[in-house]
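Following up on my earlier thread - several people asked me to post the actual chain instead of describing it. Fair enough. Here it is, all 103 residues.
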Amino acid sequence: MKEQEPLYTEWEAEEAIMHVLGRISFKRRARIIIELKQLRQDRLAKEKAHTSDSKPIVSTTRLSTRGQLVIPEKVRNHLGWKEGDKFMVMAESGRILIIKEVS
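Reply from S.P.:
Thanks for posting it. Predicted structure:
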């Protein structure tokens, strides 16, 4: 599936956000800017982790009687997942896709 081109460049999106943020209190604006920077750092870290030269992390797990799966520690550490993180889970064609939600 072809990846969609963004409607705006990252710079244009940032400018639009900053324009809107101008109408918000300083304290809230600062918190939003910090969160945006963290999201950018997380995205860059994910892109770096998923470069073609990185090797996949392979491990096994088992479904509990309560329907729970434990994600192996080395996989959680590699992805930077922590206790309390929220995820979206999708099932398709006999496979499960787990995507960390942006908080």
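The CA atoms of residues 71 and 77 lie 10 Å apart. That should answer part of your original question.
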